[in-house]
Each structure stands twice: as C-alpha cells, then as structure tokens.
Amino acid sequence: MREFLRNLLQPLNLAGFFTIAGVALSLRFTEREVTVPATLCLVAFAVLFTALGATADHRKRVRSALLVLMAAAALFQIKLAPELGTAQILLVIWVACAFSAWRVGIAVAAALLADAIFYLLIRDAGFRSPLTMVMINMGFQALAALCVYYAVRAESSRDQLALVNADLLATRALLADSARDAERLRMARELHDVAGHKLTAMKLNLRALAADPLLAGRSEVMIAQQLSSELLEDIRNVVQALRDARGLDMQTALRALAAPMPRPVLRLEVAEQVHVADPLIAETILRIVQEAMTNAARHADADTLSVSLRHGHGRILLDIEDDGRLRGAVREGNGLAGMRERLAAVDGSLVIGRSARGGLRLQVELPA
C-alpha cells in the first residue's frame, strides 16, 4: 500500500490528476444528455491512469493494454464534447504516459494515430479549422513527451550510476580485504623467518650455557631458557593465527552492493566458518548476487532477496531465493547464461529451480 501511494504521489502523476480535475470542472458546460456519459468516460480515464501508475514497469503487456484503453477513453470524451475544447487535454496526459511506458518510435506512431483520429472527430463536429487545433494540441503533446522522456532518462542514469557506485564500493571492500590478507601473510612470514629464527638461535645458546658446569646451577639461565621456549611457542601460535585468519569479508562487500537498491531488500546470512581467500571466487559470488538482485527487481517484482553463504561437503554453497512470482517455465537469458559462464571458469555449478513460495531459487556450488 505504501509503494502504491508513493507511485501515485509522483509529481507527474499529481499533475495528471490536477489536469483531469480541470477537465471534470468543464463538464458543467455540456448539454444535459451528454454530461452523464462524458462524466463516466472521464472517470474511466482517471481509473485507467491510476492503474497505470500503480502497475510495475516490467508488466509491459498490462501497461500497454491500459494505455490503449486510455486513448480510447480520451478520444471518446472528445467525440462526446468536442465543443468544450478541454477534452483534448486528456491526449496530452496520454502522450506523456505513452512516452514513459513505450519505446520512442512506438510512442510517436501511437501519438500520430491518435491525433489523426482527433482531427477526424473535430472535423466531423463542424470545426472551421480542425488542423490548427490539432497542431496546437500536438505542440503541448510534444512538450509533455520531451519532459517525460528526459525525466525517464535522468532516472535511468541515476539508477545506473547508483549501481556502478555500489559495484565500486563492493569491489573496493574486496580489494581492501585482499590487501589486509596479503599484509597478514607478510607479517606471518616475517615473524616466522626472522623472529623465529633468532629465538631458536638464542634458545640453542642458552642450552649451551646451561650445559656449562659453571652456569648449570644458575636460576637465571634456566628462567631465560624457559622464557625463550615459551616466546618461540607464542610466536608460532601468532603466525598460525595470522594464516588461519585469511579470508575476504563477503558480508561487507555484499551489503555494499545492495545498499543503493531500494528493492529488493537483501536478507543475508554468512556462516562464521566461511572464509573466501581466492579473490576470483569472491568476485564470482559478488557478480552472481548482483545479477540475482537485478533479475529479482526487473523481472520478478520481488521485495526480498534471501542470500545464504555457507560451507558443505568441502565446497562453498551459495543459496539465493527471491519472494517474487515465476510465471511459467524459467527462461535462461543473458543474466543466467553469464552466471553459468562465470561458474564454469572457477569449476562451480548452478542449479535453477522454484522456491516453495513460487519465486526463483539459485543453488550455487564453488570450490572452497
């Protein structure tokens, strides 16, 4: 409901409702026998306009059907009350909607066809200069179309920029983790090779001193020998911990990837024992989740994307599931084909299925 209201309260929609209200006020000047059908026709146009604003962008057939019905309602309104000179403003609203839903070529052709019918209607109604009226109306239509066209392009560019920025943030997080891993490995090697070597030499020297009859009874030598052994063992433990701590922070990278997308919401679960040390594997996981989020928003109209990352049977298991609705069989487009290609490059696998709630489910296995 909140999403529905947010869509209806967009500035362009508010302008459309305001214009429809203005046309409604002008109906009081029509003849009595025309007022009722003209009012019903205008109400139908308003309902169709509202339904179009509430329909998701990916439901192209539904949106196209609503646009065709809107055009019919607007033209019928013109036929009922051509003398008012206000009903044709509905065509301006309709053209703006057409340019937001259809490709430019289709929208232009549809607008020209609607204007040709508009010309015939007002010519048959007895207007002295129907072409002049049509051309003036086409000017307003062109203005509305340009405003909507550039608004849609600006919004698309903004979304693309947000996705690119999220991609850069996620990649930066992986690179930072990779750099930290490299630094931890370097420190582990330095501790093992330098400090460990010198402590071993010191321990051997203390053992030689302890074997000297003159120093064998000195407690200081025994304590120094014990401390050197303990310190050498501590350094070995630190080196082992530094090596075991290697792994990229997939949780931070995945959340950075999903941050700019208002929908779907990412529900992420990363098991504590999961450590992805290979940057290529990490990038593959990142790109698969990114493509799944794009598909869930564009094709499934999903609100939530659940992602689970865990270990199992010596492999990394990635489960992705959305709460959208699959219609018919899953058709593998470029996105899913790209996933398979990435996984094939790292000896991974992908199983595509349907979740218990009817959404898309992806089961991915990767080398650990």
TrEMBL record:
InterPro entries documented for this protein: HATPase_C_sf (IPR036890), HATPase_dom (IPR003594), Sensor_HK_TwoCompSys (IPR050482), Sig_transdc_His_kin_sub3_dim/P (IPR011712)
CDD domains attached to this UniProt entry: HATPase_UhpB-NarQ-NarX-like
TM helices/strands, residue ranges: 12-30, 36-55, 62-80, 92-122, 134-152
Pfam entry (one): HisKA_3
GO molecular function: kinase activity
Domain of life: Bacteria
Domain (Signal transduction histidine kinase subgroup 3 dimerisation and phosphoacceptor): residue spans on this chain: 183-245
Keywords attached to this entry: Kinase, Membrane, Transferase, Transmembrane, Transmembrane helix, Two-component regulatory system
Keyword Flavoprotein assigned: no
Gene3D superfamilies: 1.20.5.1930, Histidine kinase-like ATPase, C-terminal domain (3.30.565.10)
Domain Histidine kinase/HSP90-like ATPase: 284-367
Name listed for the protein in its UniProt record: Sensor histidine kinase
Taxonomic path: Bacteria, Pseudomonadati, Pseudomonadota, Gammaproteobacteria, Lysobacterales
